[in-house]
Amino acid sequence: MSFVNEAGWDRALRIIAGIVLLVLGFGGVIGGTAGTIVGIVGFIPLLTGLVGWCPLYAPFHFRTNRKQGATL
Amino acid sequence: MPHSSDAARQQDATHDAAVILEFWAPWCAPCRVMTPALDRLEESYRDRVLVRRINADDDPITVRAHGVRAIPTVIAFSHGRELGRRTGVQSPAALEQMFAAAEAGTQPGGRGPSRLDRGLRLGAGALLVALGVLTKPLLALAGGVIIFSAVYDRCPIWNQLVAPALRRVGFARRRPD
């Protein structure tokens, strides 16, 4: 059974959101400390989108992708 | 009702030259998704690879004997030696890798990232590199690492040097005995 709990569209949205936050934070759109924080926060959706696993989904056994099999 | 003799027969069945064991159940929808591809491959590899379909409901002894905990599971054998297994719905290409491996007596090819994974990583990495070039070089470095993670399985240096080292320290996927 795969540990991936995000569908393709979920992962794409996260990656886009992460990139946007990184641009806002590190691209100078939001300056100062706030920009750094926004940029760092942007890594969270980016990484969870790239990996395909969301730690907030896991405790609730929630997934946006289809189950790939059944546990016996 | 399953009998231990059924399990013995199944165990014996894996000692043929090339065998694919498929564990399934009637209520398993993902199993049904894989059925057409498995049927096609069974026909293509007729007389070269023996396919055994194990109904998990009818034969729990064989399920336990092979350490199967989820279905669908496909296991490739050559002369009784497990070459590799896959759990969950597999693409026709991945299933064909299993059949080819069983016939050749070799390990199934490395999976590497899926096409979706490769695409997402390449896209995100490229965007990060572009962002990093314009702002912080560290982001470009992160983008480069992400791009590499999309294609690492095709890097000969990785395959020759890093992957064996990772296997030695136990970070690689399980290898058959």
Biggest contact = A-B, 23 and 30 residues
Distance between the termini of chain B: 31 Å
**Rg of chain A (CA only):** 15 Å
Q: Taking all residues together, what is the mean pLDDT of chain A?
A: 87
- Compute the gyration radius of chain B: what is it? 20 Å
Poorly predicted tracts of residues of chain A = none
Unreliable spans of chain B are 1-5, 173-177
What is the tally of helical segments of chain B?
A: 7
Helix content of chain A: 40-55%
Number of strands of chain B: 5
Give the structural class of chain A.
mainly alpha
Please state the average pLDDT score of chain B. 83
Largest sheet of chain B: 4 strands, mixed
Describe the fold and architecture.
The complex is a heterodimer of chains A (72) and B (177). Chain A has 72 residues and is mainly α. In chain A, 54% of the residues lie in helices and 3% in strands. Chain A has two helices and one strand. Chain A has helices at residues 8-26, 32-51, and one strand at residues 70-71. In chain A, α1 (8-26) packs antiparallel against α2. The mean pLDDT of chain A is 87. In chain B, 29% of the residues are buried. Helices cover 53% and strands 16% of the residues of chain B. Chain B has helices at 4-13, 29-44, 60-65, 92-104, 115-134, 137-151, 156-168; strands at 18-24, 50-55, 70-71, 73-78, 81-87. Chain B is elongated, with a radius of gyration of 20 Å. Chain B is built from seven helices and five strands; from the N terminus they run αβαβαβββαααα. A four-stranded mixed sheet of chain B has the order 2-1-4-5. Chain B is an alpha+beta fold. The longest helix of chain B has 20 residues, at 115-134. The model of chain B is unreliable at 1-5 and 173-177 (pLDDT under 50). In chain B, α2 (29-44) crosses α4 and α5 (115-134) runs antiparallel to α6 (137-151). The A-B interface holds A 1-2, 8, 11-12, 15, 18-19, 22-23, 26-28, 46, 49-50, 52, 67-72 and B 25, 27-28, 30, 56, 63, 68-73, 87-89, 116-117, 120-121, 123-124, 127-128, 131, 134-136, 139, 146, 149.
